[in-house]
Amino acid sequence: MSVTPTVDSTVSEATPGDFLALLKPRVMSLVVFTALVGLVVAPGSIDPFTGFISILCIAIGAGASGALNMWFDADIDAIMRRTAKRPIPAGRIQPGEALAFGLVLAGFSVATLGVMVNWLSAAILAFTIFFYAVIYSMYLKRATPQNIVIGGAAGSFPPLLGWACATGTVGIEPVILFLIIFIWTPPHFWALALFACKDYGAAGIPMMPNVAGEASTKRQIFGYSLLLAPLGVVPALLGFASPVYGVLAAILGLNFLRHAWNTLRMADGDEQMTPAKRLFAFSILYLFAIFAGLLIDHIAAPFYPVLGG
After folding, report:
1. Residue 135: DSSP 8-state
2. What's the pTM value of the predicted model, to 2 decimals?
3. Which domains does the chain have, with CATH numbers?
4. Residue 83 predicted with pLDDT over 50
């Protein structure tokens, strides 16, 4: 079976909302937020206009990645229940339109970021779009159950991107932020895959539960969670976040482990999959709270001596 969508020359009657859906706005919002945190916590200062252009270009680049992913995945999106109503499989947008839309946005975001901010951040953005749209979407997703592990790197770049926009450099601090998202990605998506494995199986996507089975997937989820819990505390240990953040990260990490442990103990073949669903929901809260904690901690840092008397 060919994996390349057929380009239909028919003009669609798509609405602006359909093109917005191509950008995967929920994913884009997380990308924008983590990039903003990377930009704000970076040393030095960046003027508001440059900061706005940086975040705008990162958002557009993320949207371009989503559009290119939907263009290529139109065939499997049509099979899966949770994606069948997306604009391309639903017939509201033609594949060729989505491809052109994604390519224009990608080129615009990279070029604008390079000219208006710096070329290091533009290069990282270009690589991120290429990694997600080509390496992950066109190869890894359909080729290996490690698709989420390796492909997760694409979603881990935003804080590194924000840091590069603010400083023109990359250091150990943004790499730690990259690693937090990178290690978070497998337990997050494998929890989803546990209760959506029939959908993935029908589409022929080799997600871990479909290939290695539930028991192995649950063990791997717990293993990655064991790595994630202490990793979230590392910003405080390295000194670019306060002990207050460290306590918050430790509490969040222990709760992540609790949900992962409950998922590990879940009986194989459990149709309700309640622990996995709870882990998936908490994992979203975890990542948001970790980065919100970093952001609030950075803003509040000047007041800590005052609060301490």
Report:
1. I
2. 0.91
3. 16-170 (1.10.357.140), 171-302 (1.20.120)
4. yes
